[in-house]
Design a protein that fits this description.
Two copies of one chain form a homodimer.
Chain A (H helix, E strand, L loop, with lengths): L9 H11 L6 E5 L12 E2 L9 E2 L3 E4 L13 E4 L4 E4 L11 E4 L3 E3 L3 E4 L9 E2 L10 E3 L7 H9 L4 E5 L3 E6 L4 E2 L6 H7 L1 E2 L2 H12 L2 E4 L6 H14 L2 E5 L10 H8 L1 E5 L3 E2 L5 E5 L2 E6 L3 H20 L7 E5 L4 E2 L5 E11 L2 E6 L8 H5 L2 E5 L5 E2 L4 E6 L10 E5 L3 H13 L5 E5 L2 H9 L5 E4 L11 H7 L5 E15 L20 E4 L4 H13 L12 E2 L2 H9 L5 E5 H7 L2 E15 L6 H11 L1 H10 L2 E2 L6 E5 L1
Parallel strand pairs in A: 13-16, 13-17, 14-15, 17-21, 19-24, 22-25, 29-30, 33-34, 33-35
Antiparallel strand pairs in A: 1-12, 2-11, 3-10, 4-6, 4-7, 5-9, 8-9, 18-20, 20-21, 22-28, 23-27, 24-25, 24-26, 26-28, 31-36, 32-35, 32-36, 32-37, 32-38
Helix pairs in contact in A: 1-7, 4-7, 5-6, 13-14
Chain lengths: ~625, ~625
């Protein structure tokens, strides 16, 4: 089954778009003070000199300098007011016959005279006609962006109206029977009946951020409706986005609408995410079908609508690229361009790229990403320690002052993040949840200076210290205690499967959900299974791995799994039942170097605060008696 | 006479402002999709998982995987539609009892059955509940800027409304009897009666660019009116700008209004421009008096309102600083901080700083500047070749691809600039008018690769070549002819002083206006005066120097001078009379290296075009027979 026209490379796709999109030629005659950010379509010439006449540069007395030449300290000159001398304020036109202004401090004014004790010179304190702007001067050329200062200069030059390029306008049409508009529904309706359309809202904002004028339609469910809306929209907008209906399902009618109303130019681009993008021309206007998966829609937008905007508006966007280093191998399929979301960690002026979840449906990672990297189709990804270029999708300034924790997941990290942003709005605390062991390995590699961990040593039955000493025997580090927390079995409300202890997870009628390899919780589970002599194979669902406590929680809550190992807090958050297993130490591993960083002290202030401990105790399942204590100092 | 309260340093002034300005605590509960760019005041938690239920990741057939286990290529399994198997589209909720989705391409569908030839596995093509967002997750902390992607994530998480910080609002009040609102007047009224208020318009845009919500009042003429407006405004806005009335003239009532309604904190900052800035508190709101000279107003705004914005909004502005090199000594007065507007020239990855006109009234140079440099009060300026930091006031990307000509002024440069921007919107052609000789010296120093010149050699009577060879005997350069142009005496319409030739400028009843030292026109004049045996001292106005043909033109037009030397085009532009003196060669000196730059070829295309020649001929006084010819190649 053929799903697409011939798939083309993204560069070719962009070339085809640029070939068909024509720069906006229309002009508008707008009030100058409303034109900030707009681009001129004609050169602008001054209609007025600034200043338009000789004027006083000071508060003082205008006079003819010739009449003051004899003045000195001992033989002052008296000038008759409103005959020889005229009181003027800054900016006043020079009265006829005068050619100098004496500062107000240098004249002794009485009712009828002003006494001067110093001669003036020609044009003293006088602003020349046109000293700023001369009538007829070209103030700005065409294709020039009008900023705040240009606005001032144009008005100073007597320009009340300017010809500027109309903003390119796009129209976003969400389609799909599964979609619902959250602003029209109650929470309960949404949960039961459909997926929230958020694509059209973020596309609207993305389009506006790019520079487009953007509007969206309501959700469209039927092909005829879509055809009508598109037909009307091409009369009014420069670009149309149909989202989605671009793949091959029974309701994917975007392609046929484009074909019926105009010409389809391409359908299918060899990039991932974003492959099912299509492009056509209807009545000279650009019409796109972009994929429904939100990350695909975002990548498709950035790939194709940024060049489109530049073409339509005859401007260049200021995209920011940064060189970063791959901390480990990043594999990619050959034959297709792959675009990855990454977080950047800055260490000693260098940026390290950490790819986020690749799934096209994981939109939250788009909101958490700092940048995008593009892996070309002809390579199988990047090796460890390669230098690659990434495109920033947020301001880069915050990265350097951010606190980045890699390691084990706990709710306390969210609490600390919010508290940090509350006290220090410019310092974000972000965490990458790779599990305790992977965190320690990243720490050893020098990628992170902070790692959260809860790993029990099988023999010594001590948390964290033995394991960290094993991996980091010589390097200098400090271990800070965050909290003791209760781990246990998370089961449905009322414990429907009557689970009593760890042995029950191997029962045939029980579906288990596991945590990922390398996480402290997984190590705990495996240690306990070994103790009980339970084999992995006997557990129904052992191979289903999730990477956070909350993911385990939601699967149990939705009865997709019957049981999983998680912290007590999850039982409270999701109103589930909980069978305690152990109390463990959740600790923070800190590189010695970082203990001298100002941010470490800000973080410690938070950890030691009563607010933090209070919030943990409010959630429950934590013990905070030793919170903030230094447990061990190595090297 | 005491004009100010004790003057304080700008850092102290900023500290005092921050001490009195309180972060905005108010919150608003806004529709999430309208919150792009806003800052949260509370952490935001997901109200909904995304997806909120198990759903199909593909178009296909939902089934229980257990029922497909026996399928293979030769022994297919038939599943009954709407009993064992359910057609689903991407995003549809999984029907009860199913736990896998078979791709549409892998099922053979008939009216009642779907035939499967491959076993499915548990959760195949199924999106897990919460795989993107889990109900209860903290999506963003407080003090977080909501971008387009955050908007999407929040709506995906069921968040329809968010608490965000109100935008700080400021109110701009233009005051001054000399001011007129250009939108209320005819051109003629303006020319005769007052100065156009453009400060309030550019301040409005500058405030909005900074992030404020900004509004302005009409022009205020009387103290009582100002008091009333300020009294009302402090109820509604977070900051008030009164512009100006901050110095010491008879109408400067800003200080007394602040004193009457609240407390004056400081008046006078030891910075230039911007010295007469004042700051006070009225009913807890910040009130500023900022200077009337437009550059002073702009510098005062940037110095004090950017930190104020950061404080009020609890955010940090992303200001961009660049290191640049001083190509020559930049003197500055000790004891006062001086802020200069500069243009940057990029050469081989290094930026060179060229200060623009310092006058506080020359606002056009604010619109032409790339950046600002601050010279601290304790130094006497910068030496040649110092590395200093400058603050960008426009996007820096365009600087590297710009064409920068230093040298002699001619209208052809404006024509070329506009043509270049028309054909190549991203390439600006800017020119710094320092005169021919200073241009050649800048070229020799390696600061510019392009210099326009028209210098006659006194002995050989040849233009440009002998002089350039003298200064640049060994370096490789090319001389391109732009046009022959007529220089002559510019006199009033009808030649009221009956000037016949160069000798007449020495007459007692004639006021002359000169060009600056080092300009080709000045060299021409001095050469001709020498030839006629006329002394400089005998010329009334010889010491009055202007730096462009247009400046000479406007002074003659306004009868401020009776005569000056300028190109014929000025007579046409200003409707003046013209007495021809010589026809000279206006040429472009190009460094050999730059002849290999793509931009040189774009520039040559323009110079050689019929459009360019046509425009010169339309202005008049030019001969374009040899336009674009290579006149000389050195080295």
């Amino acid at each position: 089954m053929k799903r697409y026209l011939e798939t083309i490379r993204s560069e070719e796709a962009i070339a085809k778009i640029l070939e068909h999109a024509k720069p906006i030629e229309d002009e508008e005659f707008l009030l100058t003070y409303l034109c900030t950010g707009r681009i001129t379509t004609r050169p602008v010439f001054a209609k007025l000199s600034n200043p338009p006449f000789l004027c006083s540069a000071m508060d003082g007395y205008a006079a003819s300098f010739e009449k003051t030449l004899d003045a000195d300290l001992t033989t002052p000159v008296s000038l008759k007011k409103n005959v020889d001398v005229f009181p003027v304020n800054t900016g006043d036109p020079l009265p006829g016959g005068t050619n100098a202004v004496i500062m107000v401090e240098e004249g002794e004014e009485s009712d009828t005279f002003v006494i001067i004790r110093k001669p003036a010179y020609l044009w003293q304190n006088v602003r020349m006609v046109g000293e700023d702007i001369i009538e007829g001067d070209m103030l700005i050329p065409r294709n020039h962006r009008i900023g705040a200062f240009e606005t001032g200069m144009l008005i100073a030059g007597g320009v009340t109206h300017v010809h500027v390029r109309r903003k390119p306008a796009i129209f976003i049409i969400p389609t799909g029977k599964e979609l619902i508009d959250i602003y029209q529904m109650s929470d309960e309706t949404i949960k039961r009946t459909g997926l929230v359309d958020f694509n059209s809202y973020f596309l609207l904002r993305l389009a506006e951020d790019t520079g487009f004028l953007a509007e969206k339609s309501k959700i469209v469910f039927h092909k005829d409706e879509l055809r009508n809306i598109v037909q009307e929209a091409v009369e009014k907008y420069d670009g149309i986005i149909i989202n989605a209906g671009s793949s091959a399902g029974s309701e994917d009618f975007t392609e046929s609408v484009i074909r019926e109303l105009g010409t389809l130019i391409f359908h299918g681009v060899s990039m991932m995410p974003g492959k099912p993008t299509m492009f056509g021309i209807i009545k000279g206007k650009t019409v796109f079908g972009i994929p429904g998966y939100p990350v695909s829609a975002a990548i498709s937008f950035k790939t194709f609508f940024e060049p489109l905007y530049e073409r339509l508006s005859s401007t260049q966007l200021h995209k920011k690229y940064v060189t970063c280093i791959t901390p480990y191998k990043i594999p990619s399929r050959i034959g297709i361009e792959e675009i990855l979301r990454i977080n950047l960690i800055e260490k000693k002026g260098k940026y390290y790229a950490f790819p986020l979840a690749r799934g096209a449906s994981i939109f939250s990672s788009m909101a958490r990403a700092d940048a995008l990297i593009r892996i070309p189709e002809h390579i199988e990804g990047y090796d460890e320690d390669e230098e690659i270029s990434c495109e920033m999708i947020r301001e880069g300034e915050e990265i350097g002052r951010r606190i980045h924790i890699i390691g084990s997941h706990d709710l306390s990290l969210d609490i600390l993040r919010d508290m940090m942003k509350g006290r220090h709005p410019h310092i974000d605390l972000i965490s990458t949840h790779v599990g305790s062991l992977s965190g320690i390995l990243a720490f050893r590699k020098g990628i992170t200076e902070l790692c959260t961990t809860h790993v029990i040593d099988e023999n010594e039955k001590i948390y964290n210290i033995p394991v960290i000493k094993k991996y980091l025997p010589d390097s200098p580090w400090t271990l800070i205690h965050i909290a003791k927390r209760l781990q246990g079995l998370l089961v449905g409300k009322g414990n429907p499967k009557d689970i009593k202890d760890i042995s029950d997870i191997a029962r045939n009628d029980v579906k288990f959900v596991n945590r990922q390899f390398g996480s402290g919780t997984r190590i705990l589970l495996d240690t306990m299974l070994k103790g009980k002599g339970i084999t992995k194979e006997s557990i129904n669902g052992y191979e289903r791995e999730e990477s956070s406590h909350t993911a385990v929680g939601i699967l149990v809550k939705e009865s997709i799994a019957d049981v999983g190992v998680a912290i007590y807090a999850m039982a409270k958050v999701f109103s589930l039942d909980f069978i305690p297993l152990v109390e463990e130490d959740y600790d923070l591993l800190v590189a010695k170097e970082f203990t001298e960083d100002k941010r470490f002290h800000l973080l410690m202030d938070l950890i030691l605060s009563d607010t933090f401990k209070g919030k943990l105790n409010e959630i429950g399942g934590y013990h905070t008696e030793d919170t903030g204590k230094i447990k061990y100092v190595n090297g």
